[in-house]
Amino acid sequence: MHSRLLTVTFDAYDAGRLARFWSAVLGREVIEDVGGAFLPGEDGQPGLRFVPGATPKAGQNLMHLHLTSVSLSDQEHMVAQALALGASHLDVGQLPEEEHVVLADPEGNEFCVIPPGNAFLAGCGLLGEIACDGTREVGLFWSEALGWPLVWDQDQETAIQSPQGGTKVAWGGPPLAPKEARSRQHFDVTADGDRQAQVERMISLGATVLGIGSDGTVLLADPDGNNFRVRGD
Length: 233
Fold this sequence. Notes:
Blueprint: E1 3-12, H1 15-26, E2 31-33, E3 36-39, E4 47-52, E5 63-67, H2 72-84, E6 88-89, E7 101-104, E8 110-113, E9 127-132, H3 136-146, E10 150-154, E11 157-161, E12 168-171, E13 185-191, H4 195-205, E14 208-212, E15 218-221, E16 227-231
Parallel strand pairs: 1-4, 5-8, 9-12, 13-16
Antiparallel strand pairs: 1-13, 2-3, 3-4, 5-9, 6-7, 7-8, 10-11, 11-12, 14-15, 15-16
């Protein structure tokens, strides 16, 4: 039994504003509800959810988004559009010869605009990759938990992708950055069918239960200690 939907959830000081920023960048609709704002994904691309949260950002996030481009002019246009919407350039130690552009969204969340011709992200769509800090073990965990096959497994680096294609989720292997505070980003997964059976399966794969929300959402930690939630249909 596998999860039906993968979502990246962002804690945000202003969830509505951040959702509108990413809506404009990705060309997705915003669905607002009492819990925040949701940008659904299509064709194997995970959704993005923005919820109110006052957790301060401590250091670089443990995951960030990679956006693809189809030409150099397209890359330049995407960067210019993001800057006009409130993004900013960011120096994370990238080398001068590296052609990707590193930006921060209006709340400081890192993301990259990748130049055209990247073979690894070919055919993945605009949201080409969710790049995560993590071990090979956690990549194998998520492959089994989601039922997404490994599309990369080399030198402790792993990546998975939905059988339908779309966005890849990748983990860079050691050394890992220290976890200085509760992450402002986490995965939400929607159970396909029996949520409790899905939770029990994740526990058997190495997850740990941390608690249960008032709405029945189950909070867990993956083998690297990253929080994630399992939601029902």
